[in-house]
């Protein structure tokens, strides 16, 4: 499967680069955890009730710790040659399961993932393992999340949620997935900067500077094209710059084998 987009506009910078992800076989819950699920896993009789439990770092930690015996029992019978782990899904695992089977996430919901917050897909794992937080600061207490549209079915966006406090409407589910071994393949941390600069110069000239001079000439204002060239040049550069927000040639997709 592939994550991200190859669209070249600047507004898509946080969704690039488009890259291939290869996942092992894994198991995922078909619906988010309910309060009853949480109670059963942690062995609580008076735990949270209702359709969901309050998702925080502490509640997820207690779920993994107190419910480890139940989780281990659930893993029994699987391939013993594989070391399994139970956690929230990574974005790749979530989207693969959503595309294949659907995950029953309702409108106006936010589901927490195992991935840390990142500005784009540079450095992302290409085998579906969660991406860890690699910086310093309060964002270490946040996680990536899948957020659904408040009114339209089937529309999702990558978002983020804090786990240092309960937030209404946050849900979670679990996956049973193989522990990836060895160093991961990762999306390259840097793009082809020289190629991007050349593309930007060509597009700015073709879409901004040239039309800025051609338009007054076609309207019979050729003298202004000569006398007012600084204004036309500046206006063309601005126009070319603005077009970059919405359109630029598609960027290359990073394949698994080329990394």
What does this structure look like?
With 259 residues, the chain is α+β, with helices and mostly antiparallel strands. The protein folds into 2 domains: 2-178, paralog of FGE (formylglycine-generating enzyme); 193-246, no CATH class. 33% of the residues lie in helices and 13% in strands. The strands form 3 sheets. It has a 4-stranded mixed sheet, with no helix packed on it.
Essential attributes:
2 domains, elongated, 3-stranded antiparallel sheet, 33% helix, paralog of FGE (formylglycine-generating enzyme), 259 residues, 4-stranded mixed sheet, 7 helices, alpha+beta
Percent of residues in helices comes to 25-40%
CATH superfamily of the largest domain: paralog of FGE (formylglycine-generating enzyme)
What are the low-pLDDT stretches, counting only 5+ consecutive residues below 50? none
SSE run:
EEEHHHEHEEEEEHHH
The main sheet orders its strands as 7-6-5-8
Oligomeric state of the chains?
A: single chain
The gyration radius over C-alpha positions equals 24 Å
CATH class of the largest domain: Alpha Beta
CATH topological fold name of the largest domain:
paralog of FGE (formylglycine-generating enzyme)
Count every beta strand, where a strand is a DSSP E run of 2 or more residues: 9
Main sheet overview: 4 strands, mixed
Tell me the overall shape.
elongated
Task: State the separation between the terminal residues, measured CA to CA.
Answer: 16 Å
Give the count of helical stretches. 7
Query: Beta-strand level of the residues, as a percent range?
Result: 5-15%
* Assigned CATH architecture of the largest domain: Alpha-Beta Complex
Number of domains: 2
Please tell me the overall pLDDT: 87
Structural class: alpha+beta
